[in-house]
Structures are given as C-alpha cells and as structure tokens.
Amino acid sequence: MVSILDRMRGRSNPPVVPEAEPEEEIFEEMTLQEHLEELRSRLLYSALFVAAGFVVGLALTLRVLRIMADMTGRPDFVLISPLEGFSTYMKVALYIGIAVAMPALIYHFVRFLAPGLTRRERRYLYRALPFVTLMFIAGVAFAFFIVIPRGLSFLAGFGGDVFRAEFRAQEVVSFYLTLMLWIGLVFETPVVIFLLAKLDIVTAQRLASLRKYMIILVLVAAAIITPTPDPFNMFMVAAPMYALYEFGILLARLA
C-alpha cells in the first residue's frame, strides 16, 4: 500500500515482481518392462532405417569401390577367394547404409536415453544432434579424400625396389572403414566439449590448462590412427585433431 507521505511526494513503491521459479528438473521414471519395450521399439526403427540405407548402398557401392581403386593408383583390386568380391561388395553396401541411416540412429539412441535425462539435458542434446551428424560427415570426408589416399600412396611406394603392391579388395575396404570411423569420431570433439560445458561438467579454463597434455595425447592418437610412419601423414591427422580441441575450448567459452 502506498503511504500518504509517498503520495504527497508524488512517489509510489515499485510493484513487487515475483521471482521466476527455477526450471524443474524432471526425470521420466520408467519400469524395467517399459525400458525393454522402448529398447525393442528403437532397435526396430533403427533396423528399418539401416535396411533402407542398405538399398541405397547397393546402388552406390560400385562407384565407391571405383573411387577407392582410383585412389590407390591401381585399375582394380586383387581377389584371392571366390567369395571375396561378393562379400566385399555387400560389406561396403552395408556400411554405406549405416552411414546413410546415421542421423536416424543417433536420434533413436538419444530418444532411448531421454527418460533418464533432465529436461535441460534433453534440450541441449536434441539441439546438438544436427552438429553431431555434420561433424561426423566432415571427419569421414576428410579421411576419405585426404588422409587415406596419401597413406595408400605411401604404402604402395614403400620398398618399390623389392616389393610390388597388389592390394586386396577386402584389405583396402577394411583400411578405409577403420580410418573413416576413427577420424569421424575425432571430429566430434568440439560438439562433445560444448555439451559438457553447457552441462557444467568442464570449463574453458580447465581445458586450457590441459593444453600441454592434450598435445602429447593428440600426437600419440595420431600415431595410432595414421597407417604409416610418415611424419607428414601423421601431422595431417594431428593438426586437425588439435585444432578441433582449440575450437572446443572456444565453444566452451561461448557456453
């Protein structure tokens, strides 16, 4: 109530604004049976998306294998067993199908985890989904077009005076898939750091203080991932890895 003295002075007390209540962190509790039903449903949807991607992969496999062969500098691959060509073709088609279905697979994985997360955590996770997919695709493309061709070129020319390189289809495909997977995962580093910072698990200051240890870790990881002992190829993997870590620190500051 405005006092008489304040009314005479032409002043009034400011209205009292109620403080906003903090957002309630709600967990959706589910029984064991409900969790199993949810898992079955998510696995079924994921399998359907992979099957649809596999059909797409069947149409693209020959083109992908031709690109791989061209990058090795050979007109074709060597087969040493009757079923190797067919099994390699199916394997590549399956992995293409998984790559095509990856956004849906990540989405259903997150939806399965969602009941155990708070509303705030779910919101951040859903917003990060497009960036998770884009960064993984960027890492796969970087491995496919830059790292792997240089690594294969080095391996094909190694010991050229005494060795003759005749790459098997199965070994080349495994070589590609392994490197693309690991480098694709490495490219997720900034997104993971941003999520951890938003959830107050890490801070930019703490990450910055670990730079000297991260440099050593990056060099060791690059030496493991890189298929050749060539320092140039290892640097091509290590430099983007450390740049992604610094980018993650920048995102943590923004968070």
TrEMBL record:
Question: Where is it predominantly found?
Answer: membrane
Provide the alphabetized UniProt keywords: Cell membrane, Membrane, Protein transport, Translocation, Transmembrane, Transmembrane helix, Transport
Q: Name one GO cellular component term.
A: TAT protein transport complex
- Residues annotated as transmembrane: 43-69, 89-110, 131-152, 172-197, 209-226, 232-252
State the compartments where it is located.
Answer: Cell membrane; Membrane
Give the record's GO biological process terms: intracellular protein transmembrane transport; protein transport by the Tat complex
Q: Which residues form the signal peptide?
A: none
Pfam families in UniProt? TatC
Q: How does it sit in the membrane?
A: Multi-pass membrane protein
Record-linked InterPro entries: TatC
Q: Name one GO molecular function term.
A: proton motive force dependent protein transmembrane transporter activity
Per its UniProt entry, which superkingdom is the organism in?
Answer: Bacteria
The UniProt record lists the keyword Ligase: no
State whether it acts alone or in a complex, and with which partners, per the record: Forms a complex with TatA.
The record's family statement is: Belongs to the TatC family.
Q: What does this protein do?
A: Part of the twin-arginine translocation (Tat) system that transports large folded proteins containing a characteristic twin-arginine motif in their signal peptide across membranes.
Q: What is the official name of this protein in its record?
A: Sec-independent protein translocase protein TatC
Q: Which gene encodes it?
A: tatC
